[in-house]
Amino acid sequence: MGKTQLVALAIGGIAAATTAAGAEALKVSISGEPREEISTADFMDRYGSLAKYIGGAAGTEIRLSYGRDLTRELRRTRSRGSDLMIGPAHVIGSAIRYGYEPVARLPGEERAVFIASADSKVASFEQARGKRLALPPSDSLATYLARGEFNAKGVQAKSYFASVREYRFHEAALLALEFGQADVAVADRRLAEEWIARHKGGRILLETQAAPMTGIAILGTLDGATKERVRAALLKPNPRLVDAAGFVGKDVRRMQPTLAKEYEYVATLGYFTPRVLAGVTIVGAEEVQALMAKGAVLYDTRSEEEYRDQHIRGAKWLPYKEKSAKEVGFEGAKDAFDVARAAERKDAPVIFACNGAECWKSYKSCVTAVKAGYTQVYWFRGGFPEWVARGYPVESVPANVALGR
Fold first, then answer.
1. Are 384 and 78 within 8 A, CB to CB?
2. Residue pair 299/342 in contact by the 8 Å Cβ criterion
3. What is the DSSP string of 122-153?
4. 38, CA 20 to 30 Å: which among 48, 137, 179, 278?
5. What is the side-by-side strand order in the sheet with 132-135?
6. What are the pLDDT digits (tens) for 108-146?
7. If pLDDT is split at 50, 70 and 90, which confidence band does 182 have?
8. Which residues does 270 contact at the CB level (< 8 Å), separation at least 6?
9. Rounded Cα gap, residues 174 and 48, in angstroms
């Protein structure tokens, strides 16, 4: 077994490592819910020791990244940018949809709650209509679960509440209650109960369905031997290696097996785009290929990083910089998208694509293009994942090559 080396930079950074034999290191991505703890060294130590143990038990070195931007982590599941993903339930659920296999998870479950301050006089979810709502970030597990409750009740947050504001952390959303900036907040149940204990009179209005605790998924295309070593390290830990690992809070002995079906509920909450769009023709990979053969231009609306890494062969880069909510009736003024670059003639066929049915960038691009007067707008809703699944050609752009404007 080769000597394990763990090198990590600060949160969000990536450290390179290679094995003694010259083979590529195992790329491990660690992400967490947007709680204040994620910015601390304690968070890095807890999960870093777990990753270090996995590398040692599997006989491979690792390249470790910490991510507190869950939007980026969800993108990584679609581009398969990591070999092993450790993160919240919705990240693992997304990974499973895009070719990862569930391995293990911590025991217990996560739930989000809607909590009201005593001063708001709100005693039920129904009484929250017309009030001010504070949320954690849009791609947090808590907000995913909250959106699931909205969908179940058939309500749209921005029309149900007088205002909806997102905050960087769960704790910040609860502080909005404390300082009178919101009447109702969403947070994970543990933090909400701690807040109620400190502020007598706050009340939980509604509890969401449950989701699994932090889980681990491995890329399905890795070689079988590596996958089996990782599974054994997590589910059949060697006592000697465990004792030598120096765990600081995430002991592998607490891990338990997990199955894809445990993520079925949370995996449906990823703000899936509508299946219809007025004034736009929705097309699949075969139709896109045929349209491009006839001269139609396909625009990739993803980030520069994603486009450079891999994109549909022949696609042009036209990024949609998204800040608006992932919903019908989004506020396009919050976003940045140079639709005029799509085509000089408004009657020319244009195709927009991004990261599949749960990615809203191409949907919003199509809406923007129709509003701008384009008359032949095609939406490749399945986007890059569908194209790759069909085995159609892709290409990359080296870092030293400028992208055309």
1. yes
2. yes
3. --SSGGGTTSEEEES-TTSHHHHHHHHHHHHH
4. 179
5. 163-166, 132-135, 184-188, 112-116, 203-207
6. 999 999 999 888 889 999 999 999 999 999 889 999 899
7. very high
8. 74, 90, 93, 94, 144, 358
9. 29
* Element at 245 (helix H, strand E): helix 239-245
Q: How would you classify the pairing of strands 184-188 and 109-110?
A: unpaired
Q: For residue 328, which amino acid is it?
A: V
Rounded to 5°, the CA angle 106-358-307 comes to 100
Read off the pLDDT of residues 263-312 as tens digits, 9 standing for 90 and up: 988 887 755 788 888 899 999 999 999 999 999 999 999 999 999 999 99
- Kind and range of the H or E run holding 317: strand 316-317
Environment class of residue 136 by beta-carbon count within 10 Å: exposed (0-12), middle (13-18) or buried (19+)? Answer: buried
Neighbours of 294 (CB within 10 A): 7
Judge whether 269 and 147 are in contact, CB under 8 Å. Answer: yes
Token readout for 63 is 């390249």
Q: Give the mean pLDDT of the chain.
A: 87
The residue count for the chain: 405
- The one-letter code for the residue type at 232 is A
pTM of the model: 0.68
Q: What is the longest distance spanned by two Cα atoms in the chain? A: 69
d(CA 230, CA 379): 40
Question: Both ends of the chain: CA-CA distance in Å?
Answer: 49
Flag whether pLDDT at 8 surpasses 50.
Answer: no
